[in-house]
């Protein structure tokens, strides 16, 4: 009993009280949960639907950035609606899939909005999709474009083209509505499973949201711009084992600092 009240113990208890007080005075911002955004570009609806059937066992959530919405057939639109109803996000990827930077250089930003963005928004709305995010075709963007699109979309996604060390990668959410995705297509020069593992591990360790993009989902790779369903399963399994959260692009809007 005597030892319980030694001066050292009293001092320790006192210090502990002080540190608790300090914590109360300076609340730390609540960090969001580490996670991954899986996003898919273009209009590979049948292939995405097939991948979705395989990956639902992981309760996954993804974002599908659709271009040329008026060329998509009724059966595929039905599939997209079903996917949206399940909990995936349907986002925009251009009415024609123009290279935004080149188009603006040739025709100006007003024409870009008139031809590529406004008809896309109108058509997606007419077809009953709740679209609040946009992914640039080819990841081609500029500050001028970001500015012009920022009132039209909550989240705007470009591409992170490099294969640098994870701490230098741009493909993590950085509290901005302009975000960048790392491409996990097999043909992407910087893609490999060990590197993807490094990126995932960094997200887990540092409480980050990793943003990935892909195009056509396939069982076997036959050409460029294809991602193996196996790769997606690898990501989903890693996420389940390491308790990472599936985010959609639009989820990031809730995490942005208050203006
Ligand atoms: Zn595209």
What do these coordinates show?
It is found in: Secreted. This protein is of the alpha/beta class. It is 41% helix and 17% strand. It has nine helices and ten strands. Strands 1, 2, 3, 4, 5, 6, 7 and 10 form an eight-stranded parallel beta sheet that branches. Strands 8-9 form a two-stranded parallel sheet. Helix 2 links the parallel strand 1 and strand 2. The longest helix is centred in the first third of the chain and has 19 residues. The N terminus is likely disordered. The structure holds zinc ion. The site of zinc ion has 6 residues, from strand 1.
Topology:
Elements: H1 7-25, E1 35-42, H2 45-55, E2 63-66, H3 74-86, E3 89-92, H4 100-107, H5 109-126, E4 133-135, H6 143-149, E5 155-159, E6 178-183, H7 193-206, E7 209-214, E8 216-218, E9 226-228, H8 229-241, E10 245-247, H9 252-255
Parallel strand pairs: 1-2, 1-7, 1-10, 2-3, 4-5, 5-6, 6-7, 8-9
Helix pairs in contact: 2-3, 4-5, 7-8
Bound molecules: zinc ion.
The site of zinc ion has 6 residues, from strand 1.
Low-confidence stretches: 1-5, 9-23
For the report, how would you describe the main beta sheet? 8 strands, parallel
CATH architecture: Alpha-Beta Barrel
SSE order = HEHEHEHHEHEEHEEEHEH
Number of domains: 1
Q: What's the quaternary structure here?
A: single chain
Radius of gyration (CA) equals: 22 Å
Overall average residue pLDDT: 91
CATH fold naming: TIM Barrel
Shape: globular
What fraction, in percent, of the residue positions are helical? Answer: 40-55%
Estimate the strand proportion. 15-25%
Cofactors and ligands present?
A: zinc ion
Structural class, judged by helices and strands? alpha/beta
Quickly count the helices: 9
Which CATH class applies here?
Alpha Beta
Main location: secreted
Protein name: Polysaccharide deacetylase
Domain NodB homology: 33-150
GO molecular function, one term: hydrolase activity, acting on carbon-nitrogen (but not peptide) bonds
